[in-house]
Write a structure and sequence with these properties.
The chain is of the alpha/beta class. The chain is built from eleven helices and 59 strands. Among the domains are: 171 residues, Alpha-Beta Horseshoe (Leucine-rich repeat, LRR (right-handed beta-alpha superhelix)); 32 residues, no CATH class. The strands form nine sheets. The protein has a 30-stranded mixed beta sheet, covered by helices on one side. Strands 30-32-34-36-38-40-42 form a seven-stranded parallel beta sheet, with no helix packed on it. β10, α5 and β11 form a beta-alpha-beta unit. It is globular, with a radius of gyration of 34 Å. The structure holds 2-acetamido-2-deoxy-beta-D-glucopyranose (7 copies).
């Protein structure tokens, strides 16, 4: 809703009143219809808070039987007939159902009807609306109406303005039939606003009917309507169009006209759409253009210099595009520019000096801007919003200069690694008292900033990734408890804070203090924060139990208490939190059983309880976690048989039971497609026995398909607030993958008592990166099919009873970086070529009957091995050349270099890999 619209509706009663005389008396039928309408609703004076409006008045309170209805608040009558022709009950606190028999539909003379900003509690709009055929203005936006817009709305052929939907609580939908008829019949429509109405069924051809309204349409607003397809650029050529808002329809594309624009256009919002192409110079002909929002589209090319001629601009938003080059110089001098948003582009060069100081909103974040922080920014006295994070700006800056902005409510300077900001200052200074959002992540702050203390209205504070030392000052604890009533977001993580945990205030949603050195217990009072969505206290030194009061925080989405020193039992209630999405309690000292009340329909995607002292059996109700993707129970004392009852979990990708007391045979329970998406299967260091779990392995579909497009690989988890991590073991080295690549695929069955033959079917797991079957009692030979594991980067079969020759097909494994076949009974010649030229003696130790490079024991010269090996290579479609040039660093190892590597020594293979990747 733009300002003109609001003004129009505010002033409408005055226009109408001005033309009506006070001599009319209300028609009897209309009086009783209005009274019955009034009585069908309750009054709820808290609706204004819900809608965020300053104040609403209960207009119907002045409606009394026996008085002239033409005098009632919000009612307008025809001067001659006394019929009610206008009804404005916008923002009147009405609450209740709108019934199909509602008497409002009997006011047939109505020309204006405005019921916006009331609460009709999800009722539908009934077809009786089509009876009000004299309506010229209809506004039912922001009323919590739902359901289909009735087709009879097309009877309203006199409509000049129509407003439905309005906010995300509107659940209305329009079907193509109704839409087509409406647009064909209501040919006088000047304003059409259907924001948040579901229009996903409306096709391009139906949408283009709008051009039929070319002589009338002035304002069109269809944001958040799920429109799809390509919109013809004709819409931007409608001769009378002044305002167009199609924002937040990510599947709606189109291009801007090259010429022939709607000349009166003053407001254009295409943010978050798929509009693309160039912004043509001809845009400069739009002399009335005042606000332009083209953020998060696919526009490319230069920002047209012709925009300079549009000196009347107040709002420019070109954020999240691919716009390139320096910031156009005219941005600094537009005399009435209030809003400049160029964040998330590929802008280069330095920020120039401003010569016009009208700006109120400036965002240049996430660009490649260089050079000094321009001094003239501090002349922008009216600035309320300043975002300059993630740039390459350099030089020195005194933070106290920001106290010049007296009206600032948003300040973001995070992630400017080249910029040195001096936060110390001899004189005390005060930032704008209006400051609500302060984001100073990664700003090299090393003591707790005092300038926060006077800020009474803080909503969000981010001081993460600094080096703030020492305990949290008392004034900060006090502020949290007594002053900051509106605070919703606090991030103090990745600092060096010590001492007690601060207690977050009741209304807070995000409380992030992970990766500090905090000690002591988690206070019960902390759990009064019943609106908490995300609580992250991971990586501290907290001790004592998880307080049972944690059960008050039942709206949690993420609970991360990982890597502390917490003891005691896991509170049972955690399994019943309806929205909990990630539960991470790994690496504490928790003991006892795993909670046994995971409820049906829970939202859990990640459960990590590894690295504790949990014992007992696994609760069967874990099978209720049907959204589960990661289950990590490694390094506990759980004593049970294999949880085959988890095999029906369709989303499970990571299952780690490593280092527990699991035992028995692993067999499929009977699901047709057990564990269909599993990619990391780690049951190492247990006491499993029997043959290798063939019935599962042949069904691991998640490990069979190879996604060739590895550059587009993704990590699991919500990137911002939670990354799934998992520890895997490679050649005896623990590696923590801080984020799990969706292409990471491993099987680890090592250190158990598996016996029987090595399975051919393993060769079908084509996307496997790592296979560890070491320290078992596996017999037989390596199947040739292992040559099909083309993505394999490590293979450990050591300490088994394998025999026979090493199949030459293994030289097809171009990414194999680690091979361990030691302590078996292999015999014959070690294949040469490919990665086999890089393995050392260790790979083969304890196999007395092996010979050839790299072992010193040479093979019998008569042995006819080259043809033998060529045979295998050709069979698999590989020629010598391909093998010779093929060996390369594993993709995964390259990716791993960024992760924490926990090593006791510095193994050669790792050093070799590092060298390989760096070269
Ligand atoms: C209004 O008052 C009249 C006369 O007292 C009565 O007949 C009628 O039912 C009342 N109407 C309503 C809607 O209360
Ligand atoms: C309208 O219908 C509802 C239920 O459908 C009923 O409760 C109400 O009394 C009816 N109102 C009138 C005025 O008939
Ligand atoms: C178009 O409007 C006229 C006048 O209200 C009405 O009679 C007619 O039924 C409408 N047509 C459609 C298809 O709704
Ligand atoms: C800007 O306006 C000047 C004159 O006012 C005109 O000469 C020039 O061509 C215009 N530039 C563009 C790019 O439209
Ligand atoms: C700042 O805002 C005030 C009040 O709206 C206005 O009078 C003044 O001109 C503005 N300053 C600049 C430099 O635009
Ligand atoms: C946690 O406490 C232990 C024992 O007091 C200490 O050795 C360790 O350095 C502490 N860790 C952190 C992150 O403060
Ligand atoms: C963990 O807490 C126990 C007491 O509960 C203490 O003895 C131990 O030193 C702590 N460990 C660390 C690493 O802080």
């Amino acid at each position: 809703m733009n300002i003109n619209n609001i003004l129009f509706w505010l002033l409408l009663p005055y226009f109408i009143l001005a033309s009506s005389s006070s001599s009319s008396f209300c028609n009897h039928h209309d009086t009783s219809a209005l009274l019955l309408f009034k009585n069908s609703f309750a009054l709820n004076t808290s609706l204004q808070y819900y809608y965020g409006l300053a104040s609403c008045s209960s207009k119907t309170e002045s409606w009394k039987n026996g008085t002239d209805c033409c005098e009632w608040d919000g009612v307008t009558c025809d001067t001659i007939s006394g019929h009610v022709i206008g009804l404005d009950l916008s923002c009147s606190n009405l609450q209740g159902q709108l019934h199909p028999n509602s008497t409002i539909f009997s006011l047939r003379h109505l020309q204006q009807l405005d019921l916006s900003y009331n609460d009709f509690s999800g009722s539908s709009l009934y077809s009786a609306i089509g009876d009000l055929v004299n309506l010229m203005h209809l506004n039912l936006s922001h009323t919590l109406l739902s359901g289909d817009i009735p087709s009879t709305i097309s009877h309203l052929s006199k409509l000049r303005s129509l407003h439905l939907g309005g906010d995300y609580q509107s659940m209305m939908r329009v079907d193509p039939y109704t839409w087509n008829k409406l647009i064909q019949n209501a040919t006088n429509l000047r304003e059409l606003s259907l924001d948040f109405v579901d229009m996903s069924y409306i096709r391009e051809s139906s949408l283009s009917l709008l051009t039929n309204l070319s002589s009338s349409l002035i304002s069109l607003s269809l944001s958040f309507t799920e429109l799809q397809g390509n919109l013809s650029s004709d819409i931007l050529s409608l001769p009378n169009l002044q305002q167009l808002d199609l924002s937040f329809n990510k599947d709606l594309g189109g291009e801007l006209p090259k010429s022939n624009w709607s000349t009166p256009l003053s407001y254009l919002d295409l943010s978050k759409t798929a509009f693309s192409g160039n912004i043509s110079d001809s845009i400069a002909h739009l002399e009335s253009l005042n606000e332009i929002y083209l953020g998060s589209c696919n526009f490319d090319g230069l920002i047209p210099s012709s925009l300079f001629n549009l000196t009347q601009f107040s709002f420019i938003d070109l954020s999240f595009n691919k716009l390139v080059g320096p910031i156009p110089y005219w941005c600094y001098s537009l005399p009435s520019l209030l809003w400049l948003d160029l964040n998330n582009n590929h802008l280069t060069g330095s920020i120039g000096e401003f010569s016009s100081y009208s700006l109120e909103f400036l965002s240049l974040s996430n660009n490649k801007l260089q050079g000094n922080f321009p001094n003239s920014i501090f002349e922008l006295q009216n600035l309320t919003y300043l975002s300059l994070s993630s740039t390459d700006l350099s030089g020195h800056l005194d933070f106290h200069q920001f106290s010049k902005f007296k009206n600032l409510f948003y300040l973001e300077l995070s992630h400017n690694s080249l910029l040195s900001i001096n936060f110390d200052s001899i004189a005390d200074y005060f930032l704008s008292p209006n400051l609500k959002y302060l984001n100073l992540s990664s700003c090299n702050i090393n003591s707790f900033p005092k300038f926060i203390a006077p800020l009474e209205d803080l909503v969000a504070l981010d001081l993460s990734h600094n080096s703030i030392r020492g305990s949290i000052p008392q004034w900060f604890h006090e502020k949290l408890l007594h002053s900051w009533k509106n605070i919703s977001y606090i991030d103090l993580s990745f600092n060096k804070l010590q001492g007690d945990l601060p207690i977050p205030p009741n209304g807070i949603h995000y409380f992030l203090v992970s990766n500090n050195e905090l000690t002591g217990n988690i206070p019960s009072a902390m759990c009064n924060a019943s609106s908490l969505k995300i609580l992250n206290l991971a990586h501290n030194n907290l001790t004592g139990p998880i307080p049972s009061a944690m059960c008050n925080a039942s709206s949690l989405l993420i609970l991360n208490l990982a890597q502390n020193n917490l003891t005691g039992h896991i509170p049972q209630c955690l399994g019943t939190f309806p929205s909990l999405w990630a539960l991470d309690l790994q690496k504490n000292n928790l003991y006892g059983n795993i909670p046994a009340n995971f409820s049906k329909g829970n939202a859990l995607e990640t459960i990590k309880l590894n690295g504790n002292q949990l014992d007992g059996q696994l609760p069967r109700c874990l099978a209720h976690c049907t959204n589960l993707e990661v289950l990590d129970l490694a390094d506990n004392n759980i004593k049970d048989t294999f949880p085959h009852w988890l095999e029906s979990l369709q989303e499970l990708q990571v299952l780690s039971l490593r280092s527990n007391k699991f035992h028995g045979v692993i067999t499929c329970f009977g699901a047709k497609h057990p564990f269909p998406r599993l990619r990391i299967f780690d049951v190492s260091n247990n006491s499993f026995s029997g043959s290798l779990p063939a019935s599962y392995i042949k069904n691991f579909q998640g490990m069979m398909s190879v996604n060739d497009n590895q550059t587009g690989s993704k990590y699991m988890g919500n990137q911002y607030f939670y990354n799934d991590s998992v520890v895997v073991v490679m050649k005896g080295q623990y590696m923590e993958l801080q984020r799990i690549l969706t292409i990471f695929t491993t099987i680890d069955l090592s250190n158990n008592m598996f016996e029987g033959e090595l399975l051919k079917v393993l060769g079908e797991l084509h996307s496997l990166k790592g296979l560890n079957l070491s320290h078992n009692a596996i017999t037989g030979t390596i199947p040739r099919s292992f040559g099909n594991l083309r993505n394999l980067e490590w293979l450990d079969l050591s300490w088994n009873q394998l025999k026979g020759e090493i199949p030459v097909s293994l030289i097809n494994l171009n990414f194999l970086a680690v091979l361990n076949l030691s302590q078996n009974q292999f015999e014959g010649i070690i294949p040469t070529g490919g990665q086999f030229n890089t393995f050392g003696n260790d790979s083969y130790a304890g196999n007395p009957m092996l010979c050839g490079f790299p072992l010193s024991k040479s093979c019998n010269k008569d042995e006819d091995w080259p043809p033998h090996s060529t045979f295998h290579i050709e069979e698999s479609g590989f020629g010598w050349k391909a093998v010779a040039v093929g060996y390369a660093c594993g993709f995964l190892f390259g990716m791993l270099l960024g992760y924490n590597v926990f090593m006791t020594g510095k193994p050669q293979w790792l050093a070799r890999l590092v060298g390989c990747v760096l070269n």
